[in-house]
Design goal:
Elements: E1 14-17, H1 23-36, E2 40-44, H2 50-60, E3 65-69, H3 75-82, E4 87-90, H4 95-103, E5 107-112, H5 115-123, E6 129-131, H6 134-146, E7 155-157, H7 166-170, E8 176-179, H8 190-208
Parallel strand pairs: 1-2, 1-8, 2-3, 3-4, 4-5, 5-6, 6-7, 7-8
Length: 213
Protein backbone atom coordinates (compact mmCIF):
# COMPACT_ATOMS: atom_id res chain seq x y z
CA UNK A 1 0.00 0.00 0.00
CA UNK A 2 1.38 3.39 -0.99
CA UNK A 3 1.94 6.21 1.45
CA UNK A 4 -1.18 8.33 1.74
CA UNK A 5 -1.09 12.10 2.08
CA UNK A 6 -4.17 12.82 4.23
CA UNK A 7 -7.00 14.95 2.92
CA UNK A 8 -6.39 18.37 4.53
CA UNK A 9 -8.64 20.14 7.00
CA UNK A 10 -10.15 22.76 4.73
CA UNK A 11 -12.73 25.32 5.82
CA UNK A 12 -15.04 23.62 3.34
CA UNK A 13 -14.47 20.51 1.26
CA UNK A 14 -15.17 22.33 -1.99
CA UNK A 15 -12.88 22.22 -5.01
CA UNK A 16 -13.30 24.89 -7.68
CA UNK A 17 -12.66 23.42 -11.14
CA UNK A 18 -11.56 26.13 -13.58
CA UNK A 19 -11.59 24.27 -16.88
CA UNK A 20 -10.63 26.61 -19.72
CA UNK A 21 -9.32 29.44 -17.56
CA UNK A 22 -6.43 31.46 -19.03
CA UNK A 23 -3.29 32.77 -17.32
CA UNK A 24 -4.47 36.32 -18.04
CA UNK A 25 -7.60 35.96 -15.92
CA UNK A 26 -6.54 33.36 -13.36
CA UNK A 27 -5.43 35.78 -10.62
CA UNK A 28 -8.71 37.71 -10.46
CA UNK A 29 -10.89 34.64 -10.68
CA UNK A 30 -8.81 32.65 -8.20
CA UNK A 31 -8.80 35.47 -5.67
CA UNK A 32 -12.58 35.92 -5.99
CA UNK A 33 -13.13 32.22 -5.32
CA UNK A 34 -10.78 32.16 -2.36
CA UNK A 35 -12.25 35.31 -0.85
CA UNK A 36 -15.70 33.74 -1.11
CA UNK A 37 -14.53 30.91 1.13
CA UNK A 38 -13.37 28.11 -1.16
CA UNK A 39 -9.85 26.92 -0.28
CA UNK A 40 -9.13 24.39 -3.04
CA UNK A 41 -8.72 25.38 -6.69
CA UNK A 42 -8.00 23.06 -9.61
CA UNK A 43 -6.85 24.07 -13.09
CA UNK A 44 -7.47 21.17 -15.50
CA UNK A 45 -4.50 20.45 -17.75
CA UNK A 46 -6.63 20.80 -20.88
CA UNK A 47 -6.87 24.53 -20.13
CA UNK A 48 -4.67 27.08 -21.95
CA UNK A 49 -1.11 27.10 -20.51
CA UNK A 50 -2.28 25.45 -17.27
CA UNK A 51 1.02 25.25 -15.43
CA UNK A 52 1.51 28.98 -15.81
CA UNK A 53 -1.93 29.54 -14.27
CA UNK A 54 -1.15 27.13 -11.45
CA UNK A 55 2.16 28.87 -10.73
CA UNK A 56 0.41 32.24 -10.61
CA UNK A 57 -2.26 30.94 -8.25
CA UNK A 58 0.23 29.19 -5.97
CA UNK A 59 2.15 32.46 -5.56
CA UNK A 60 -0.92 34.70 -5.18
CA UNK A 61 -2.80 32.37 -2.81
CA UNK A 62 -0.20 30.68 -0.57
CA UNK A 63 -2.87 29.58 1.92
CA UNK A 64 -5.03 27.88 -0.71
CA UNK A 65 -4.76 24.28 -1.92
CA UNK A 66 -3.88 24.83 -5.58
CA UNK A 67 -3.27 22.20 -8.19
CA UNK A 68 -4.12 20.48 -11.45
CA UNK A 69 -6.98 18.42 -12.75
CA UNK A 70 -7.21 15.96 -15.64
CA UNK A 71 -3.71 14.67 -14.85
CA UNK A 72 -3.26 11.51 -16.92
CA UNK A 73 0.51 11.55 -17.63
CA UNK A 74 3.14 10.71 -15.04
CA UNK A 75 5.49 13.38 -16.42
CA UNK A 76 2.94 16.06 -15.57
CA UNK A 77 3.37 15.34 -11.86
CA UNK A 78 6.88 16.83 -11.95
CA UNK A 79 5.60 19.85 -13.89
CA UNK A 80 2.89 20.36 -11.30
CA UNK A 81 5.42 20.18 -8.49
CA UNK A 82 7.67 22.69 -10.22
CA UNK A 83 4.72 25.06 -10.61
CA UNK A 84 4.05 24.90 -6.88
CA UNK A 85 0.89 22.79 -7.09
CA UNK A 86 -0.13 20.74 -4.06
CA UNK A 87 -3.33 19.11 -5.36
CA UNK A 88 -3.57 16.47 -8.09
CA UNK A 89 -6.95 15.46 -9.48
CA UNK A 90 -7.38 12.88 -12.22
CA UNK A 91 -10.31 11.31 -14.09
CA UNK A 92 -8.90 7.80 -13.59
CA UNK A 93 -6.79 5.67 -11.25
CA UNK A 94 -3.12 5.38 -12.19
CA UNK A 95 -1.04 3.95 -9.31
CA UNK A 96 2.20 5.34 -10.79
CA UNK A 97 0.79 8.86 -10.90
CA UNK A 98 -0.55 8.55 -7.35
CA UNK A 99 2.81 7.27 -6.08
CA UNK A 100 4.72 10.11 -7.75
CA UNK A 101 2.31 12.69 -6.40
CA UNK A 102 2.55 11.26 -2.88
CA UNK A 103 6.35 11.43 -3.07
CA UNK A 104 5.99 15.20 -3.50
CA UNK A 105 3.52 15.42 -0.62
CA UNK A 106 0.60 16.21 -2.91
CA UNK A 107 -3.03 15.72 -2.00
CA UNK A 108 -4.56 13.32 -4.55
CA UNK A 109 -8.13 12.80 -5.71
CA UNK A 110 -8.41 10.24 -8.53
CA UNK A 111 -11.64 9.58 -10.38
CA UNK A 112 -13.47 6.31 -9.70
CA UNK A 113 -16.78 4.81 -10.80
CA UNK A 114 -16.77 1.21 -9.57
CA UNK A 115 -15.92 -0.64 -6.37
CA UNK A 116 -12.84 -2.10 -8.06
CA UNK A 117 -11.56 1.36 -9.00
CA UNK A 118 -12.39 2.77 -5.58
CA UNK A 119 -10.42 0.09 -3.74
CA UNK A 120 -7.51 0.36 -6.18
CA UNK A 121 -7.35 4.12 -5.60
CA UNK A 122 -7.56 3.71 -1.83
CA UNK A 123 -4.82 1.06 -1.72
CA UNK A 124 -2.69 3.19 -4.07
CA UNK A 125 -2.62 5.99 -1.52
CA UNK A 126 -5.35 8.36 -2.71
CA UNK A 127 -6.15 11.17 -0.27
CA UNK A 128 -9.79 11.12 -1.36
CA UNK A 129 -11.95 9.47 -4.01
CA UNK A 130 -13.66 11.42 -6.76
CA UNK A 131 -16.77 9.62 -7.93
CA UNK A 132 -17.07 10.73 -11.55
CA UNK A 133 -19.35 11.36 -13.31
CA UNK A 134 -21.41 11.60 -10.13
CA UNK A 135 -24.59 12.55 -11.94
CA UNK A 136 -24.70 9.07 -13.51
CA UNK A 137 -24.31 7.23 -10.21
CA UNK A 138 -26.44 9.65 -8.22
CA UNK A 139 -26.71 9.60 -4.41
CA UNK A 140 -28.21 6.09 -4.42
CA UNK A 141 -25.39 4.58 -6.47
CA UNK A 142 -22.70 6.26 -4.42
CA UNK A 143 -24.41 5.18 -1.19
CA UNK A 144 -24.24 1.55 -2.33
CA UNK A 145 -20.53 1.84 -3.16
CA UNK A 146 -19.73 3.77 0.00
CA UNK A 147 -21.24 0.96 2.08
CA UNK A 148 -18.36 -1.36 1.19
CA UNK A 149 -15.53 1.17 1.55
CA UNK A 150 -13.54 1.74 4.74
CA UNK A 151 -15.20 4.37 6.89
CA UNK A 152 -12.16 6.64 6.85
CA UNK A 153 -12.23 7.09 3.06
CA UNK A 154 -13.04 10.66 2.05
CA UNK A 155 -15.69 10.53 -0.66
CA UNK A 156 -16.15 13.39 -3.12
CA UNK A 157 -18.38 13.85 -6.14
CA UNK A 158 -17.65 15.61 -9.43
CA UNK A 159 -19.51 15.81 -12.73
CA UNK A 160 -22.96 17.30 -13.08
CA UNK A 161 -22.85 18.50 -9.47
CA UNK A 162 -23.91 21.97 -8.30
CA UNK A 163 -24.72 23.60 -4.98
CA UNK A 164 -28.34 22.43 -5.33
CA UNK A 165 -27.12 18.84 -4.90
CA UNK A 166 -25.26 19.22 -1.60
CA UNK A 167 -28.11 18.08 0.64
CA UNK A 168 -28.94 14.92 -1.34
CA UNK A 169 -25.32 13.75 -1.41
CA UNK A 170 -24.70 14.72 2.21
CA UNK A 171 -27.47 12.32 3.27
CA UNK A 172 -25.43 9.39 1.94
CA UNK A 173 -22.16 10.52 3.54
CA UNK A 174 -20.52 12.53 0.75
CA UNK A 175 -18.48 15.39 2.19
CA UNK A 176 -16.43 16.78 -0.72
CA UNK A 177 -17.64 18.39 -3.92
CA UNK A 178 -15.95 19.50 -7.12
CA UNK A 179 -17.75 22.41 -8.76
CA UNK A 180 -17.13 22.94 -12.47
CA UNK A 181 -19.46 24.64 -14.91
CA UNK A 182 -21.90 25.67 -12.17
CA UNK A 183 -19.09 27.83 -10.77
CA UNK A 184 -16.92 28.74 -13.76
CA UNK A 185 -16.98 28.42 -17.51
CA UNK A 186 -15.01 30.37 -20.12
CA UNK A 187 -16.42 33.83 -20.61
CA UNK A 188 -17.41 34.48 -17.00
CA UNK A 189 -15.54 37.31 -15.29
CA UNK A 190 -14.25 37.37 -11.72
CA UNK A 191 -17.29 39.27 -10.46
CA UNK A 192 -19.76 36.64 -11.69
CA UNK A 193 -17.54 33.77 -10.55
CA UNK A 194 -17.19 35.37 -7.13
CA UNK A 195 -20.96 35.68 -6.89
CA UNK A 196 -21.41 32.01 -7.78
CA UNK A 197 -18.71 31.00 -5.30
CA UNK A 198 -20.45 32.88 -2.49
CA UNK A 199 -23.73 31.15 -3.33
CA UNK A 200 -22.01 27.75 -3.26
CA UNK A 201 -20.40 28.54 0.10
CA UNK A 202 -23.74 29.61 1.56
CA UNK A 203 -25.37 26.41 0.30
CA UNK A 204 -22.56 24.28 1.72
CA UNK A 205 -22.76 25.97 5.11
CA UNK A 206 -26.53 25.52 5.17
CA UNK A 207 -26.05 21.75 4.79
CA UNK A 208 -22.87 21.12 6.74
CA UNK A 209 -23.07 23.85 9.34
CA UNK A 210 -19.96 25.71 8.20
CA UNK A 211 -16.58 24.80 9.69
CA UNK A 212 -15.02 28.14 8.80
CA UNK A 213 -13.40 30.31 11.41
Amino acid sequence: MSTTVPWPKLKRDLVAILRGVTPREIAGIGEAIHEAGIDAIEVPLNSPDPFRSIETLAKRLPLALVGAGTVVRADDVECLHEAGGQLLVSPNVDPDILARASSFGMVTMPGVFTATEAFLAHHSGASALKFFPASVLGPAGISALKAVLPREVVVGVVGGVSDTDFAAYAKVGVTAFGLGSSLYKPGLDHVEVGKRAKAAVAAYDAVFGGRHE
